[in-house]
Amino acid sequence: MSDKKKILVHTCCAPCLIAPLQELRREWDVTLLWYNPNIHPYTEYLKRRDTLKDFAEKEKIPVIWQDEYDLDMYLKATDKKDVVRCHSCYELRLVRTAQIAMGKEFDAFTTTLLYSKYQKHEAVKAIGERLAGQFGVDFYYQDWRELWQSGIDMSKAAGMYRQSYCGCIFSEKERYWKPGKVIK
User: Fold this and answer.
1) Any domain includes 135
2) Nearest CA-CA partner of 94 in 26, 182, 6, 8
3) pLDDT category, 175, cuts 50, 70, 90?
4) Domain-located, residue 182
5) Selected residue with higher pLDDT from 175 and 26
6) 138-139 and 28-34: which strand pairing?
7) What number of other Cβ atoms are within 10 A of residue 19's Cβ?
8) Residue 64's domain spans which residues?
9) What local confidence, expressed as pLDDT, does residue 93 receive?
């Protein structure tokens, strides 16, 4: 049995996990959480889930699977005019992470969203810290954006599926739809 403290890591995808995982394992006994009802379309959800499954098995990392493709719930949760959509998405996933961390007696929780240079980093941090107080389990904050390129290199070397947008239907639109441009 490990003397390390236990941390639950909300994991959006394996490529965002690969570089931070090395640092986390130095200090923590790591368990992953897959809970991403935001990923759209379903085929994209499956690619990301299965890539994480393969990586976790190879690395012998336990995963808690909240394998719920609940697009309707996600759209309702993020359809609030008074808040930024991304903040609602972070909240949705981090609340679930904190709840599970508390219920399974983890010492802390964190998220791979802190790795991406495209996420609203300060919002993720603020939400995590607020939820730590609410659920009584520490939020482990680490800015992993400095690992961005090494994570890309490592995930490519591992032959991982690498996505080209955040995951939600809105980020897919921002990535691919260009006003006035017709795709044939």
Assistant:
1) yes
2) 8
3) confident
4) no
5) 26
6) unpaired
7) 22
8) 5-176
9) 95
